[in-house]
Design goal:
Number of helices: 10
CATH architecture of the largest domain: Up-down Bundle
Shape: globular
Structural class: mainly alpha
Number of strands: 5
Largest sheet: 3 strands, antiparallel
Distance between the termini: 28 Å
Strand content: under 5%
CATH topology of the largest domain: Four Helix Bundle (Hemerythrin (Met), subunit A)
Radius of gyration: 20 Å
Length: 282
């Protein structure tokens, strides 16, 4: 497995879930923090006896946070996904974690191996190219439909998220930049008002998320911002073709940078192995 970048230890912005008895704040950092450090212990604590409704809520909480982590690039290509480790980070039993992982396997965010282990799919240039083509078609359509229905509220939301991206860029905070990027895309896709199309966008997002996580270690993500500026202007004009083109260009630019970064690191690793062999022979 290629070690693309170290696993994120923090994630901005907690996810809030409403329980029947209390409001529970569950940030993604809850399962990234090491057990015993106190971080996970402050979050999801499951009572010994839960009625069926409460059990379903726990299952949905675990799934929602894992899904958000994948979309945000917290997981990386080739990373193993361990039920016991994630359950410890959630301070919950294995059952809701196993169910959440099963759902993410169905959505192709994770893959089940013959030895019963689960991992994020390995890095595949062909997969990146395939996802790029399909995303341009599906997400471009969603953007076009959103532009046709664009409201002043949507335009303000997209412009605010675009501004958040620019601020993150000034701080050199690629993590915040990637999170604002995800929120911007899905704000537009939801505005398409296409209940059958939105799950397709989400499934594609789950598959590309680990590849975007690769970009969190690199400055190349900044180049997509100009496409979001074009998207905001197209939405303001209700220009469906312009919105479709802006999203497609953003997706294509990101895919190109992912592949370029993979090639540079792949060549760097080969060069390091050659140097190691020469030292061993010398």
């Amino acid at each position: 497995m290629i070690a693309w970048c170290r696993l994120r230890k923090q994630f901005a912005g907690p996810c809030r879930f409403r329980h029947r008895a209390a409001s529970v704040t569950l940030p993604i950092a809850a399962f990234l923090a090491a057990p015993g450090t106190g971080t996970a212990d402050r979050h999801l604590v499951i009572a010994p006896k839960l009625d069926p409704v409460a059990v379903n809520l726990v299952h949905e909480r675990v799934y929602a946070v894992l899904k958000q982590a994948v979309l945000a690039g917290v997981f990386i290509p080739g990373q193993k996904v361990t039920v016991r480790e994630i359950a410890a980070r959630f301070a919950t039993s294995a059952m809701p974690v196993r169910e959440a992982i099963r759902r993410l396997v169905t959505q192709q965010a994770f893959e089940a191996l013959p030895n019963r282990t689960v991992r994020v799919p390995e890095f595949s240039p062909a997969k990146v190219q395939d996802l790029c083509r399909v995303r341009c078609m599906v997400e471009g359509t969603a953007a076009a439909w959103a532009a046709e229905r664009a409201t002043p509220e949507l335009v303000r939301q997209v412009e605010a998220l675009f501004a958040a991206e620019l601020e993150a860029l000034e701080r050199d905070d690629l993590h915040a930049l990637l999170e604002a990027n995800r929120e911007l895309h899905f704000a537009v896709y939801r505005a398409a008002e296409a209940p059958s199309l939105l799950p397709c966008c989400e499934m594609l997002g789950l598959q590309i998320g680990p590849y975007l996580g690769v970009l969190q270690c690199d400055q190349t993500l900044r180049f997509s911002l100009q496409d979001h500026g074009k998207l905001a202007r197209a939405l303001r004009r209700r220009d469906a073709a312009g919105a479709r083109d802006a999203i497609a260009q953003n997706i294509t630019t990101s895919a190109r940078h992912i592949l370029e970064l993979w090639q540079r690191r792949h060549e760097g690793e080969k060069a390091a192995r050659r140097r190691g062999r020469r030292r061993a022979e010398g």
